[in-house]
Amino acid sequence: MTSDGEWYLSDLANGIERSRILSIAADVRKMKAEGKEVAAFTVGDFSPEQFEVPPIFIEELSDAVLANQTNYPPAAGLPELRNKLSDWMKHRYDLDVSSDGIIVGSGARPVLFSSFKLFLEPGDGLAHGVPAWNNHYYVHLNSAVDIPIRGTPESRFLPTAEGIKERISETRVLILNSPLNPTGTCYTRNELAAICDVVLEENSKRKVAGVKPVMLVYDQVYSTMTAKGVSHVHPVQVRPEIFEFTITLDAISKSLTATGLRLGWMAIPPVLAPPVIALIGHMGSWPARPIQFAAAKTYSNPQTLEKYFSDLDMKISERMEVLFSRLDAMKAEGLPVNYIPPEGGIYLSTQFNLFELLDVKTNEEIRKWLLDEAGVAVVPFQAFGLEEDTGWFRISIGAVSVQEIVEAMNRLEEAINQI
Ligand SMILES: Cc1ncc(COP(=O)(O)O)c(C=O)c1O
Q: Fewest CB atoms within 10 A around its CB: which of 4, 52, 170, 408?
């Protein structure tokens, strides 16, 4: 065999890029194994030592395993689970797709992959914000044309209606994520309504012209996690007419801090559902049957869930408050750090503007310095498609305790002061 696999593989396989975030996380694990002090602000995962899956989920899961729930589930998901999730989406987001419009997968990823496959032909435009999680990989996997819409600190790094409007005529699928990974910011009602208006106006024109519409994929996997005074908004809550063009993605991975249990779902107008069910079936990417039982039981009790979500918000905000109060104090001392106030999810957009102080040119050099000199492991926005070296990084609080954050901020302040 040749030493690399290129000769054997398809162009698609040869072009698949490895996740940049996972390779940074591997560096952190190595340093920890060597006994170095590092705060793992890198991965969008939850440490089970810090964040607990709802106990009812675990009890129901083990009951289902002991009751021998070990055969294939239906490809779209267990009917009782589809019912409960459909009730939940209606109760929480005013989105009524009925149980026929709910299709479950092993996490958000298979339903995300399926939603692109439903609409994109090779060469179609896939519009997405930058920075944002993983879209550039999906552009490649679908041989789509990349339409990056750049966010700025002024737009809290969210793609705006104006930015989307400029490229809407080339767009077949627009994916939006709110709260946004990696920035921890969320759309307001007005911002989202303005985007829906751009899509609706374009689709009215396309209907007359007999051209396929823009479809909106709305990824809201962090929707239950919002900062004090912030509400998550779903497109149908601001423009009910967007319903027929909207595919909603959600999952327990983030909301129940259950990234390893693998259950996500798509909420789609039921008329569009049959090909998704077939696709999930062909990929075999349905969640394990006991997981589906446990989720059905957990989502039968919205009050318990609401309580779980508000407790979780408190744990997230405890961590965020330490971070931004320390960054504020450093700013007040004149150190070149900055952040965008957190609105949702588990991320903080943080700027380490250390180019002059360190006499370096790239975010990557700053990332390495933060890791080596302060034991602060962060992910540059380049990993989310924003190529400029402006010193912006993602901090994730999913795997760290309050104490670890305090210690990391102490090390950071000291290291910057010593430059
Ligand atoms: C915005 C966003 N969507 C989807 C996913 C994928 O979720 P899952 O682990 O359920 O596949 C992630 C994971 O980090 C995410 O951040």
A: 4
